[in-house]
Amino acid sequence: MAESVYKMIELVGTSEKSWEDAVNNIVLKAAENLRDIRIAEVLTLDVKIDNNKIALYRAKVKLSFKFEK
């Protein structure tokens, strides 16, 4: 069995629709530059509020991807 090494980074994504959409935005954007994304671990969820209404959903996510030389 071949050994692998994975790197982890933290990213914050936003959406006007939902937390799920905010996480999806992170994965889609990260996939433009990273290969072999393996895990997306949601660390925190919060919202920005304007005029007593939710204006923006935010998700902080830890992503792991295969580390290559």
**CATH architecture descriptor name:** 2-Layer Sandwich
Strand content: over 45%
Q: Strand order of the main beta sheet, please?
A: 1-3-2
CATH superfamily: Flavin-binding protein dodecin
| Residues in helix, % | 10-25%
Q: What is the number of domains?
A: 1
- Along the chain, the helix and strand elements come as EHEE
* Biggest β-sheet description: 3 strands, antiparallel
- Coarse shape: elongated
Return the CATH topology: Dodecin subunit-like
How far from one another are the termini?
A: 19 Å
Report the strand count.
3
From the alpha carbons, calculate the radius of gyration and give it in angstroms: 14 Å
- CATH class term: Alpha Beta
Structural write-up:
InterPro entries: Dodecin (IPR009923), Dodecin-like (IPR025543), Dodecin-like_sf (IPR036694). This is Dodecin family protein. The two termini are 19 Å apart. By secondary structure, the protein is of the alpha+beta class. It has a single domain, classed as 2-Layer Sandwich (Dodecin subunit-like).
